[in-house]
Specification:
The protein is α/β, with parallel strands linked by helices and 281 residues long. The protein has nine helices and eleven strands. Helix 5 packs parallel to helix 6 (185-200).
Amino acid sequence: MSWSNYHTHSTYCDGKGELEEFIKKAKELNINKLGFSSHAPVPFDCWWTMPKEKLPSYLAEINILKQKYNDSDFTLLSSLETDFIPGIMGPANPEIIAANLDYIVGSVHFADMFDSGFRWTIDSNLEEFEKGINEIYGGDVMKAVHRYFTLQMEMIDTEPPHIIGHCDKIRMHNKKKYFFDENANNYISKVYDLMKFASEKGIIIEINTKYLETADLLFPAKEHFKWMNKNKIPVTINSDAHNPDKLTEGFTEVAGWLIEAGYKELWEWNGKGFEPKQFKV
């Protein structure tokens, strides 16, 4: 089976490989559609996002590589993983629109701020995650969870991207320390409401495999796949690769689980946009 990956990070942000390294590895791994989606610049200090001054060279290099590599068997695409921060940044930001991207991955990493003005992120290290829960949300983790999903719903409503990145990633630290019950109705309802709303808006939910091999984590969790198929949630498989060797990590397993859940289609780039395409392993 040929693969696609629309969520890829290079040395332009926090990735570990140059753009052309990813392309060469993609061809080895039978990927026929590869999208570069570096973390979009944000108007404050952040070590893992692309510096604003690098955006023009990022876009220019992708265009050069498109001319070099795009043919009937391989398509290179330009994108950014754009954070939604109300009033500050989002998929509809003028600078994002001006980049003339093929598509946009929309994600929420930043929630609220500490009293110091430092922005708390939902996928920071465990110590910072706990600090944010305690100092920003008064020790109530479900307030943070609610805020995270509320921000994603607002993004879908006001600045819809083409793909939602790692839609339930706030549960990642539950692997190390119990914070909340992922099987509780008050949590699952937030996940399902989000996916339903995205589907209504024509937005794709990625199955993010970044931590599958290292932590047995998927975003969203595979336990939701049957519900997702029943509710016609459009999906694609992305590895959120930060290293060329990770471009198809977990893809075969996830494709198999999707088929077991009843899925017959993944959403793929067709030259102008995304459409469902039948797949098999």
